[in-house]
Design brief:
This protein has helices spanning 3-16, 32-44, 50-58, 61-64, 69-76, 78-87, 95-106, 111-130, 138-153, 160-170. The chain is built from ten helices and no strands. It is an all-alpha fold.
C-alpha cells in the first residue's frame, strides 16, 4: 500500500471539512469522524485495501461539503470517485427518503462500499453512546440505532468481525 494517496486524502478531507463540527456537545472537529472510520477499518477490521481506506476518509465530502465528484476523480481517480458516490446520500432528497434509500441500496452495494458503510455505522453508534448530539433525546437516539441496524442488516456477511463490533455497539442502545 502506498501511503502517499491515503495521506493526500486525509489532507483533502481536512480541507473540505475544516469549518465543520460534529453535533456533539463539545463540537469536535468533523474530520475526526472520517479519520475514525478509516482507523476502525485498518486497526479493528484488519483492512489494508487502500481504496477502502481512502473512501472511508472521503466518505462524507460529497454530501456534507461543496465538493464535486470531478474533484475526487482528479485527485484520486475514477474508482475512488465511484466508491465515494456509492456511499454518499443525495442531499437534494428529503432526509427520510435518503435514510430509506440507504437501507434499500445497502445489500446491492459493492463489497468495498459495504465495508465503509459498516465502519461508518459502528463509529456513529460509538459516538452516540459516548457523546450524543446536543439536543437529541433518548427516543431520537434509539431511532438512529434502529435505523443503523436496518442498514447493517443488509450488509450481513461482508466482514463477520466488524459485524460483531456493530452488534456490540448496538447492545449499548439506550
Amino acid at each position: 500500500m502506498t501511503d502517499r494517496l491515503l495521506l493526500e486524502s486525509i489532507h483533502f478531507a481536512a480541507e473540505k471539512h475544516r469549518h465543520q463540527r460534529r453535533k456533539d456537545a463539545d463540537g469536535l472537529p468533523y474530520i475526526n469522524h472520517p479519520i475514525a472510520v478509516a482507523c476502525l477499518l485498518a486497526s479493528e477490521g484488519g483492512i489494508t485495501d487502500e481504496e477502502v481506506l481512502i473512501t472511508a476518509v472521503l466518505h462524507d465530502v460529497l454530501e456534507d461539503t461543496d465538493t464535486r465528484s470531478e474533484e475526487i476523480e482528479a485527485g484520486f481517480g475514477g474508482r475512488i470517485r465511484s466508491l465515494v458516490e456509492e456511499v454518499s446520500d443525495d442531499k437534494r432528497l428529503p432526509k427520510q427518503k435518503r435514510k430509506q434509500l440507504q437501507i434499500e441500496r445497502a445489500a446491492g452495494s459493492s463489497d468495498k462500499a459495504k465495508l465503509v458503510k459498516l465502519a461508518d455505522k459502528i463509529c456513529n453508534l460509538r459516538d452516540m453512546s459516548e457523546c450524543p448530539p446536543a439536543g437529541w433525546d433518548v427516543e431520537r437516539i434509539r431511532e438512529y440505532f434502529d435505523w443503523a441496524r436496518a442498514v447493517v442488516d443488509q450488509l450481513a456477511g461482508i466482514h463477520p468481525r466488524m459485524e460483531r463490533l456493530f452488534f456490540e455497539e448496538y447492545r449499548r442502545r439506550p
